Amino acid sequence: MPPHREGGQAQYRTEADPARNGGELAPTLAWLRSSLAEDLQLADIAQHAAVSTRTLVRRFRQECGTTPLQWLIGQRLDHARELLETTTLPVEEVARRTGFRTSASLRQHFARRLGTSPLRYRRTFQQPARVPA
Question: Which among 9, 79, 8 is positioned nearest to 37, based on CA atoms?
Answer without folding.
Answer: 79
